[in-house]
Amino acid sequence: MHQVVLGTAGHIDHGKTSLIRALTGIDTDRLKEEKRRGITIELGFAYLDLPDGTRLGIVDVPGHERFVKHMVAGATGIDLVALVIAADEGVMPQTREHLEICQLLRVKQGLVVLTKIDLVDDAEWVDMVEEDIRDFLQGTFLENAPIVRVSAATGEGLDTLKQCLLEMVPNVPARNTSGPFRMSIDRVFTMKGFGTVVTGTSLSGTVHVGDAVTLYPSRIETRVRGLQVHNQEVQQAFPGQRTAINLQGVERDALPRGEVVATPDSLLSSYMLDVSLELLPDAPQPLKDRQKIRFHTGTTETVATLVLLDRDQLAPGEKTYAQVRLDRPLAVLRGDRYVLRSYSPIRTMGGGAVLHPVPKKHKGKDKPVAAQALKTLEDAEPAVALQWHLRDAGWLGVSEKELQIRANVFGKSFSDALEMLLSRQKAILYDRENRRFIDLESLTALQENVTAILATYHARNPLKPGMPKEEISAQTDRPVDPKLLHHVLRRLAEKGALVLDKEWVRLSSHKGDLSSDAKVIHEQMEKIYSEAGLQPPFFKDVSAQMPGTARQHKDVLDWMLNQGRLIKVKEDLFFHVQAIAGLQEKLVTFLQEHGEISAAQFKEMTQVSRKYTIPLLEYFDGQKLTIRIGDVRRLRETKGAGARDDAGASGR
Q1: Where are the alpha helices (DSSP H) in 424-515?
Q2: Of 49, 125, 328, 370, most Cβ neighbours within 10 A?
Q3: Is residue 386 within 8 Å of residue 403, measured between CB atoms?
Q4: pTM of the predicted model, to two decimals?
Q5: CB atoms within 10 A of CB 355
Q6: Banded pLDDT at 587 (limits 50, 70, 90)
Q7: What angle do CA 482, 363, 478 make, to 5 degrees?
């Protein structure tokens, strides 16, 4: 069934509630104060069954200027507007403001209901009021809308109004049933025996009894205990329906108006929004950068700071892009409309659409760049929107789920657009397990950055075999997802641009050759350690004898270690490889003949002091050649035996 919601708009006391009561038999004024004062304060709801079987949901909004925020909430999700104007008064201040709000929220269809015609005896007066209304509507979406004369008191014109609505309903586009369920809460109440009930107009998707749902931005998780549409119990609710949801295990006080009931993991909360912004032509003054505002979207209102991205102020009638920094988080999607009202005195100033629901903070010189980028996003097709957000996510990448939410593209539209980007290599899947993506431009930039980092490192450390992998991420221009960095290193290695060697990374072009100065140092160090045998000096003493700088000495030392010419036994104590090889051969022969060796026997074998013997014994232990058992060492014969011996030795 085609689901359509009609909303009223108009000045206070122009007969909106009376009109609905005459049409439907339902009194939408439910509060005692509304009955006492004769004005609508809160939103009211009714429905009208049209002759073709369509059930038209109706939202009655307050007309008083003090309750415009409720009017904005009520206008969210309506398909048609009935602009109600009393024949005895004509166009009034709230008539203008309500029409402005409907235009800002992009309500596209509606009609004018000229009420209270029973109070005007002069037909020429009614004609004059209607002519004035036509002039007022020039340039608006109601410019060519029908004007229906009605009396709620006598019933005159009601059949004509119903026929007019019947003709308009088929022209209302069907709501999107794909993607997540989403409904902004406009009422919260409790029912005895049922618990907490929330109502609103379903914006998209479908929901069933028993479904898990999440409340945003509070992220309260709950379940649908029951559903009603126009006071009738149903098992499923569709987009465009006035829906009541009985929530399981949620207290009423935890749910202020403005929360959104949605499919789990379908929204992201943020304290910032990037938006398009248009200031009304008749706004009383310009909007200034960093001005305090009242931000209305869905059924919520919050105070915010408006940050203009490409100018210091916005004049009436102008359009631009801005970042809204909210006093409390909201959960919205790209394309959601909003209304902006001045902080004090309160007046509707302008509005626009959300373009980025979770943007980065724009500062300084980046602000005009951000404004320019947002132009692309404003009316973007699904593939363009996905690619835009892939690029915006940068080197942190973005998950498939988050990409859908950021771009507000779901279902088949999302899968088709993503497949097209992947097939054209404009999007890269770099983490299959978590389904994370990056755009090709960002990937290329990261590859270039990594290559530049390695080149700089090699220039500063010409003798080192490469750069430690863990140091690369600390030096990239921007933060990087660790899995993305791993993907980039592997990708560059496959192309032959670099070499991965355990914990080291180096450019393929890096050879680590010695310079003429380094060769001199190397020759002297080689001679010193070779001649020293098992009694080498500490490196600090070797360095003191070398030409060049301490940095050059350390670089040559590292190079000799990586080339296997020297072996580090402990801090600052290095042995020539031939000395260690010779000693190891003697040690293995001794242990094969005698089974074990004590520290004293080892000292006698080496003919060196304790300052060398103990580090050497510990070195061979560390190399898994020997194992210490008590005061002696034995050969580590098998892995199993060694593991048992280690356990025993560690307990001693």
Answers
A1: 440-460, 469-475, 482-494
A2: 370
A3: yes
A4: 0.78
A5: 25
A6: very high
A7: 20
